[in-house]
Specification:
The complex is a heterodimer of chains A (about 260) and B (about 270). By secondary structure, chain A is α/β, with parallel strands linked by helices. Chain A contains eight helices and ten strands. Chain A has a single domain, classed as 3-Layer(aba) Sandwich (Rossmann fold). In chain A, α4 packs across α5. Chain B is globular, with a radius of gyration of 23 Å. The chains are: A alpha/beta (about 260), B mainly alpha (about 270). Chains A and B meet through β6 and α3 of A and α7 and α8 of B.
Chain lengths: ~260, ~270
Amino acid sequence: MASIELRNITKVYSDAKRKRDLLAIDDVSLTVERNEFLCLLGSSGCGKSTLLNMIAGFEKPTKGTVTVGGKPVDGPGADRGMVFQQANLMPWLPVWENIAFHLRLKGWRKADRRAAAQEYIDLVGLKGFESHYPAELSGGMSQRVGIARALLMNPQVILMDEPFAALDAQTKMDMQEELVAIWQKQRCTIVFVTHSVDEALVLGTQVAVLTSRPGRLRERIELDLPRPRDITSPRFNDHKRHILNLIREEGLQQRQVAAA
Amino acid sequence: MTALSKSWERAVVPVLILAAWEIVSRSGLLPAALLPAPSIVLHSWADWVFGFDETAQANSGRWLADALSSAVRVAAGYGIAVASGVLLGIAIGWWNWVERAIEPTIQMLRPVPPVSWIPVAIIWFGIANKPAIFLVFLGAVFPILMNTIHGVKTADRNLIRAASMMGATEQQLLRHVVFPAALPSIFAGLRIGIGAAWMLTVTAEMVAVKSGLGYVLWDSYYFLRYDLVLAAMASIGLLGYATDALIKLLMSAALHWQHASTLQSREG
């Protein structure tokens, strides 16, 4: 059974100031199977984050339906864990309390929360930083907390909105490797939004390439590359060339439209 | 810098002021009764507190009772102001309909000086603790309310998103995200509020109450006991300083998570 199903999603923003409607997403249909790692790839402004926010329940489509695990989405919920671009940690809570925040909401006692958090602290490699506050963490460590926090809810799907975009190259590579390891270990469905072709090819089992303004599904590519992925291998580069060509064509068309 | 030299820094300005005052007062530039020297004030004050030689006349040895009755009024009025200011502030900051319904009324009441409520307060509550408590409440509630509203309104929307992603209900959002996020602002309001609370206790005691530090101050003025007037002023200042220090202590305990990221951490 499909884990996530987007059916004929259209999103129109009404621009009250300029008195016109802006078509942001145009008839996108997409299904994500269980345990899949789908990367939504597109340039900024193509509506990829909007699609993710619809799955999360933060935004509603103008037309079309979103279902997760067969149930229509009508608001945010703990069955869908989200990792944001900025970690969005509660600055007044130490690392372990941030990770176990979901259990705090469920009314668990402190000792039980602390014990439950430990498993995920170890999983994302934050041992020794349990009692640190977010202001004392580096960007990479903050994102680890964000990931652990999403994993602890044991959600059906994990939604990631360019979580590594603000990290330096080395940290980004480490985090990508770790994310793949976690995904393989936890067997969960991940939808990962990115604008980086390399990142999509390193992480995903599938890549959905979106066009911009309005966002449409350009092509969906199945990746059967062996892991860990070798970013210098010919097959990796074949995929990369193909996707870059798609993007280039897209840019060319847009300029022609603009010129006409 | 060592802790000792730092506490010495704190004492420099008060000591200089006291020394200058003592010199001016003893030089005979002004009649001694109108500007009593600090040593004389201290003597009367000590008798007011401990009651050893009746310098403070009827007030001798009654300081603790006077301070306590002022403090009780501050505590009661301020307590009511904190509870209602924070709760109402969160409601106004969070729900737009509450803001639309209540804010205009509050903004009209806010510029009315609390002191101008004294006649009404006396008619409503008589001459006793109640009008003073009412005045303290009026003085303290607005800064607490305004700062709470500001704190709620400026809470990070992304944290609210993150919490609702984790399944938080509206009530949980308010308790676990909005309230702690607004806490730094709320504390700013609490500190402004406590100052206003002391000001208004003293004002109320001058007019509508027959006990407390403000009453002694005004009463001593009628008897031209400027030494006691000054002792009363100093007592109020000290108690205000002490309560503010208490709130600061509470604040640094509640907001210890801020220390790594703010200027406060520079302080030793």
